[in-house]
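STRUCTURE REQUEST FORM
Protein name: Cell shape-determining protein MreC
Source organism: Myxococcus stipitatus
Requested output: structure tokens
Priority: standard
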Amino acid sequence: MLSLLKRYRRPLIVGALLLYPLVAFLLSGRKGRDPNPIDRAVIAVTSPVQQALTASIEGAVSAVRHYLDLRGVRQENDALRLENLQLRASVQALGESRTENERLRKLLGYAEAAAGPEIPARVVGVNPVAKLLSVRISGGEKDGVFRGMSVVTPDGIVGQVIRATGSYSDVALVTDPQSRVAVRVQRSRARGTAAGAGNGPLKLENMLRTEDVDNGDLIITSGTDGIYPPGLVVGRVTNLEKKEHGMFQGADIVPAVDTSKLEEVLVVGSPYSAMAQGSAAEGASK
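Status: completed
Returned output:
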């Protein structure tokens, strides 16, 4: 028993000092007497402890309230942040839809103004092999697309159909090293050839040194190769090199169409494709 009293001596003393003012207050309330010196001494000792306990309790309550308020604000901020992300995604989707509508409207306007049949198609794949620069489009023989037809956009030429199946076709781009397009200078009507050179500008070949060509001249298709209709935009002349000797002069042609960003195209007819379609129809009838 004595060991327990020694161990808990301080808590018992503090508890007695804290309880004494309460008991004294209750007793004084009944008798109505003034506090004696012992009461005053106990109150003087215990008041700071009570004040410290009260301040600690009030501080703890205030901290809990602040924590709950901050938690509510944090949850509200998280909800607002999520709503902001959703709104930004919606705005981005609307902007992409508007851009696509503008492209399709431009494509439709070009198709309506064109003289021959125009078959719209969407780019669905890109050939990963650098040996052949080509894309795959969502239009095939069942849509009237055949090997040899030319592929264009309202901005200019894209390439030539090299393979057609029932629902899809492969298009060799004008930038492919094997591509050759008969062209002319729109201003001077001088004729030449636009040759693919891989990713980058085309090469102007077979342009006689005596022909009138300048940097910035617009190059268009001449229509003499039987692939592209005449008058389609190919690009503009840059890095013109007029040689002092030889028959030809050289230059680069910056393509009018960025083939790395193709999304929608038009397939147009050509004499070769018409013959191919006629041959296929004859073979089917036999």
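Reviewer notes: Residues 118-285 form a domain with the Thrombin, subunit H fold (CATH 2.40.10.340). Residues 271-286 have pLDDT under 50 and may be disordered.
Form closed.
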